[in-house]
Amino acid sequence: MTVLRETWIVFHRSMRLTLRNPMWAILMLSQPLMYLFLFGPLLKPITAQISQGATTNAYQVFIPGLIVQLGMFGAMFVGFGLIAEYRAGVIEADRVTPASRISLMAGRVLRDVVVLVVQTLVLLIAAVPLGLRAPWGGVLLSLVIVALLGATFASLSYSVALITKSEDALAPLLNGIAMPLLLLSGILLPMQIGPEWLQRLSDISPLKHVVNGVRALFRGDISNSSSLWGLFWVVLLTIIGLTVGARTFRKESA
């Protein structure tokens, strides 16, 4: 109960700071919205080829990729805020408190997850007038996946930020990781329409299976093997991310 209370205190402080300056959250949402309005309409003429007959709704293919992208990129760069706090002396102040080191991370991660879920809801609402149709069960499970992805990448981002303690080191590292993940995950277009060598290469990316799983959920195939594999990978990634983040916070904040 003490850990939960301390986590809530850290979350409450972090959320207040976000609400005072929401520009970062708005900027992170602007990119998926631009993809939605400027790139989404281009998919309609090639929907049959993309879905391979599984669906006639282009946005059932495109929106799942966008929300996974939001869950990934929306949390991947939160470490910059932690570096700013480190330089301002906030981390040093946290170290002298009796608060659990796990709570110091969990409260910040919970804030990032809440922001991501709200952003995802805004994106889904904006997509409905454009033609998005999806079962409620699949949408709710997709929100859970986005939340888990956000927790994963936020934890890892905070870990790297605590280790590097420098924007100059963090920025190229995250950008170098983000681009291959984006291109091999099939976020914008399914990898099935690419050449065989590219499909085989993309199989090494867990995010590809997560994206395929969310697309299956948006079609209503909750018990589909793609959905189950997507859930498996996102849970595994979350366990790894939270474990790494917790160990780093305990070590660096000792």
From TrEMBL:
Transmembrane region(s): 21-42, 62-88, 109-132, 138-161, 173-193, 228-249
Record's protein name: Transport permease protein
Family: Belongs to the ABC-2 integral membrane protein family.
Alphabetic keyword roster: Antibiotic resistance, Cell membrane, Membrane, Transmembrane, Transmembrane helix, Transport
Localization per Swiss-Prot or TrEMBL: Cell membrane; Membrane
GO cellular component: ATP-binding cassette (ABC) transporter complex
PROSITE patterns: ABC_TM2
Location, primary (coarse class): membrane
GO molecular function annotation: ABC-type transporter activity
Pfam families: ABC2_membrane
InterPro entries: ABC2_TM, ABC2_TM_bact-type, ABC_2_transport, Nod_factor_ABC_transporter
Membrane topology: Multi-pass membrane protein
Domain ABC transmembrane type-2: from-to ranges: 23-252
Keyword Membrane: yes
